Amino acid sequence: MIRKLGWPLLVALVFLALSIRAASLVDASPLDKYKPQSAEGRRYYKLGAKFIALKKFKLAVQAYKDGYLADDAPIFLYNIATTYRAAGQLQESIDYYKRFLMFARDPHPAVTSGINKLIEQLRTELAKREREAKAKHAAKPRPSPSPVKLTTRPAPVPEPWYSDGVGWALAAAGLVAGGVGLGLLSNASALRSDAKRELNVDTRLALEARADSRETTEIVLGLTGAAILTAGVVKLIITGKKQPRRPSGVDVAFSVNWVGLQGRF
To answer: Does any domain span residue 181?
Structure first.
């Protein structure tokens, strides 16, 4: 049949074949050679694409990572970077684009150039976000600090002399002891008078002995009462010398723009 049609038909068929081949080369993506070759790798590749279509970026990233473990095709690294970029995780996207360029075998110049430009764009966007975050933080109004109040403890107020219970108790005890001593002295004098009038010697001696005992007790009580009374009077005098005064104190309050003082003197 070819002999009948001759060389023109043969040339036409060859031209058609070359045209089809050229068209297939033009339509082929530079990334196609990095796609997975195993059945399991292709399954994870399709699964990740489905998750991206549903905007489930976290699940898509996990599917691509599992696919890279099953089939270390560099396209998985590229897809992870692209998914992170779609999710707004720019730094992670930059990291995986760099990994793709590192592990891709003989990357096409157009692929390398395009990814490097994309990395620069992501860095610019990341720096812009950081500047905006700092500006927002700086523009946020800071609450003014609350005033701090410092209060000094007032000086203790001394008790007035007439409220000194210890002094009065000592003075009263001294007076009681002195009064008892005087009573014993009077009783001793009466006993001695009775002894002088007593004719019985034994009775007279007993009365004199009782009188001596009463006099001794009176002397002890008198001296003790005098000492206690003196101590009480001295205590009252010392307390009276401590003049009462008003309590003093100072309150200090300050803030950023002002300082206040309030005192009692």
So the answer is: yes
Q: How confident is the model at residue 23 (pLDDT cuts 50, 70, 90)?
A: very low
Q: Do 175 and 111 fall within a single domain?
A: no
Q: How far apart are CA 83 and CA 108, in angstroms?
A: 21
Q: With respect to residue 5, please indicate whether it lies within any of the assigned structural domains.
A: no
Q: Contact, 194 vs 140, CB < 8 A?
A: no
Cα(184)–Cα(223) distance, rounded to whole angstroms?
13
148 occurs within a structural domain? no
Based on the domain organization, do 43 and 132 belong to the same domain? yes
Measured in Å, how far apart are the chain's first and last C-alpha atoms?
A: 131
Which amino acid type is present at position 227?
A
**3-state helix vs strand vs coil in the chain, percent to 5:** 70, 5, 20
pLDDT digits (tens, 9 = 90+) for 216-257: 876 876 777 778 778 767 766 776 666 555 555 555 555 555
Q: What is the reported pTM?
A: 0.46
Beta strands in 138-236 (DSSP E): 148-151
Last residue of a domain, one of 76, 108, 139: 139
CA distance 265 to 250: 8
According to DSSP, the residues that pair with 150 across neighbouring strands are: 252
* DSSP-derived 3-state class of residue 197: helix
Secondary structure of residue 264 in the 3-state scheme: strand
Which domain covers residue 126, as residue numbers? 30-139
